[in-house]
Amino acid sequence: MEGIMSAPQSLKNIVEIIEIVGKDSGIDQSPQVLIEIPHGATKKEHFEELKAQLSSEFPKDLIDFFFVNTDVGAPELAQFTAEILSRLNHRCKILIVRSLIPRTFIDCNRRLNLSENEALEAGITVGLPVYVKTASDKELLLHRYSCYQQEAEKAYACVCGAGGIAIMLHSYAPKSVGISAVREDIVERLHDVYSPEQYKKWSVRPQVDFIHQTPNNEILSHDFLRNNMTKHLERSGYRVAQGESYKLHPATTGYSWAKKYKQKTVCIELRRDLLVEHFEPFSEMVIDIEKMGRIATAMAGGILESLQSEEP
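The structure assignment produced for this chain is given below.
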């Protein structure tokens, strides 16, 4: 166990901390499960609040990029899964860490020392987009980013440092549309690739994908948890891939947590059309409760099986 660290706290417009507990869990008991959502700012008000604080001249209709690029459904799925898990295991305590910082302005799943060329080579976006230009904007964004990372660090220490497990939860668009670099013309390029004649040519992503291998093919994930979740998801009819979409890159904070807490974490991507009533790339989507419940039940079943195997 690591040294004592204070519990994470919610910070307005930066991070939301939710604890969901089974009815028989102990007051002083450490959470057994952490669910982190680093791209958890999914609502229009999240975008508008932060944009109103910034002075850079941003691309027109930048909110379209926000809607298509944020992890729609992931916060709700985390809470659904945690609530089901707490009912299945009355002694279980689950900690949810949700970023409230839109990745449109700064990405809480990135290390910020990555150059654009390095990002292009890796096939990922940089942490701080090129259209954030003013020093005051960068200062504000870096402050919020640092505050989020501090609370996330506390959460991982409280859970994984005490022997628990963590799930890095993401959602992605149904298709990969071939854009990795974010430049001033990002909105125009997105509308182009999502036009009917272009969109049909893009490949459909796996319904679920566990991002478990590094570019050097090192496996850092909690394989028993990953295998159990895979089994329960497949039993529920989902097509589950293992690292088909991309690698767990060292430029991501997800990699850092997985490296620090080896065999304690899993990183999972789920297609957004599995979580919403209808996928609409450039508008706020409506969560589908029935779809959400089905996939959350499968995820909770896999987590529960893993927890039971680790009980003394």
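Interim note for the steering committee: The beta strands are 15-21, 33-37, 93-99, 165-172, 208-210, 240-242, 265-271. The longest helix spans residues 135-159.
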